[in-house]
Amino acid sequence: MARLSKENTNLAREIIDRYPVRRSALIPLLHLAQEQDGYVTEEAMEHIAELLGLTPAEVLGTCSFYEMFKREPVGEYLVNVCTNISCLLCGGEDLLEHLEDRLGITAGSTTADGKFTLEDVECIAACTEAPCLQINYRYFHKVSHEQVDALLDDLRAGRLAHEVPKHGTLARVRQQVPSDRRARVAHPDQSIEPVWLARNERASGAGAPSGGGAGAG
Amino acid sequence: MSDREIPRIVSSRWDLEDGFTLDRYEATGGYGALRKALEELTPAQVHEEVKAASLLGRGGAGFPAGIKWGFCPPGVFPRYLVVNGDESEPGTYKDRILMERDPHQLIEGMLLAAYAIGCGQAFLYVRGEMALAQERLASALNDAYAAGYAGRNILGSEFSLDIVLHWGAGAYIVGEETALIESLEGNRGMPRLKPPFFPAAKGLYLQPTVVNNVETLANLPWIVTNGGGAFADLGAEKSTGTRLFAVSGHVENPGVFEVEFGTTTFRDLLYGKQYGGGIRDGRRLKAFIPGGASAPWFYEEHLDLPLETGAVGAAGSMLGSGAIVVMDETTDAVRACWRVVRFFARESCGKCTPCREGTGWLEKILLRMLDGKGRPSDVDKLLDICDNISPEINWPPKQTTICPLGPSAVSPIASAVIRFRDEFAAYCGVDDGAVPITVPVKGKAYLAQPVSEAEPVGATS
Questions:
Q1: CA–CA separation, B215 vs A83, rounded Å?
Q2: What is the predicted ipTM?
Q3: CATH of residue A146
Q4: Of A34, A63, A92, which residue constitutes the final position of a domain?
C-alpha cells in the first residue's frame, strides 16, 4: 500500500490539468488515494507531493485538517451517526448507543473483524429526516433500531454492495470533459477580458455602470 | 401568508422521479433562461435583472447577490465563480436536495452568473460527505458539456465556461467563504483576515472571485425567465421571492418547504397543516432556533414574526441558512445547549485564540454540569467566557475573531442560560464558594421575557 497506481496516476494528471494552479488538486488527489486504499497512506501522500511539486509535509498539513481523510485503516463500513441538535431531539443518541451495543464497540473505534467503524458525527444535512446516519457516506433516513439491525445484517451478508460502495469511494461517476469541449483554463497571470463581456461593454459604451462588475454596486 | 398562488421557484422538480436528468430538465423548460440570456440579453442586462430581483444570498449572511457581483473591480481578469455547496450548519438541509434532485438548475444558475460577471471558469465546491450530490452533479455536468451547455462556445455563442466539480473532506468552517477559497487552493480551511481584501476584489488565487450559495444560484433561471421584477413582487420588504426552510426537531411533519419569503410567519411554518403540522404529540413549544445553530433562540412570543430578514434581525436573531429547529417542553435546555456548543468546539479551526480556547471551555463546563459536577458559579462563568469571545453578548455579535464561528457558540449559551437559568442552576449544586460575577448582555432575543407570569417556562434573572 502504496503510491497511486498507474491508472490513478493518469487520472491524477487529468484532475491537476483542470485547475489553473496545481495545488488546488490536492484535496481531490487525497480523495483518489483514499478511494484506492481505503485510507490515505504515507506513500500516497509522498506521491501526491511529487505530482504537485509540494513537500510531503505540506500534503500532510492539508490532509490532517479534514475529518474525512483517514490516515489509518478503518472498517469496511464506516458508520456515521449524527447526534447534532435535530437528531439529538429525535433519538440520535439512543441510535448511537444502540449501535455501540450491537457492535460491541464505542464510537470512534472499529470492530475486531474489521467490518465496522462507528463514528459520532456532526450534522450531515438530513435534519428533517432525523435520526439519520451514513454508511460509507450513503444516507439512511429516519432510522429505527430495528431498521439499523437489519441494515447491519444486510451489510454483513453483502446484500447492499450496490448501494454502499467500499470506503473511500464517493461519486461513482467521474467528471469527464472532452478536450474539444473545454474552454481555456483561466490562469490568474493572464489578464484577459472574456470576449463576450468585452463585446457587450463596447456595445453599451465605455463606463457602463454594471454588468461585468464595473463600479462597486 | 398571502392568499395568492406562490410559484415553486427552486423546488419545482423535487417531486419528479427523474428531475435530475437532462431530458426531464429540458422538457420542463430547463436551459431556456440560458438561451434567452445568450440570444437576447447582454451580461449587464442579466446583472440588472438580478439586482432588480433584490435576491438575497441564501447561505446565511443574506447579502444581496447582485450587489456582491458588482464588487468585482473593473478591468481585472480572470474572475472566478465559486459555488458554496458545503452545507453543514446544524439544522440546514436544502442545498443537498437542490444538488441531488435538480442539479441542472444549479448548473444553469452558474452559467447565468458567470455570463453576467465575466467568469471563464467556475468551481462547484460540494460538501465531501454528500456522495449522491457529487454523483448527480458529475453526471449532469458530463451531460451538459456533451449537449453544448457548458465548455467552449456555449450554444454556439462567444460565451465559454469551464465548470470544475470539486468536493471537500469534512470541515464546517469551509462554509465560510474565505476558508472555502483556502480549501479550494489546497490548504487547511482557515478563514482569511478581511478587510482589507474581500473575495470580490482578491479571492481565489488573489483574483476577483464571487462566492454564491447553491440556493442563491438556483433562483437565477427563474429570475432570467420571468424577470427580476416578477421575483421582487413576491415577498415583503427586503426579503423577496421565495425561500426554502427546513423545519426539523419536535414537529409532527418535519420537512423542507418552499414558501413566500417575508410574508409567511414562523407560526405558519411550525403549525400549518401543509408544513410542520404543529408540535409533536400535542405538546407545548419550549424554544426554536430560527436560522441554524448559530442563531439566538426564539420562543412562543416570536411565533407571529414574519420570515423576513429585517424583522427577525430587529427581534434579535437571524434567518441564517433557513434552518428552523423546534424544541418542545420536554427538551432539556442544558443538554441541547451543550450539544450545539460541542459542535462549535469540534469545528473551531484553531486560528483565533478566543474561539479555539473559549469554545472548548464552554463545552467542558456544560459537560461538567451534565455529569452532575456543576458549581453555582458555572452559570456566570459560561456567560463570562461568552463575553470574552463576543464582548457584551450583543446581537448582531461583536467579534474578537476573524470569522463568526466563535460568536456563533455564544448564541445557544446566552439564549438558554438567560431564558432557562433555573434549569442550569439545577445542574450546579456543588458549592465552590466562588464570588459571583456580573456579565453584561445586550441582545434583544436574549432579553426576551418569559411567555407568561402564571406559567413561567423559565426565569430570567
A1: 26
A2: 0.94
A3: 3.40.30.10
A4: A63
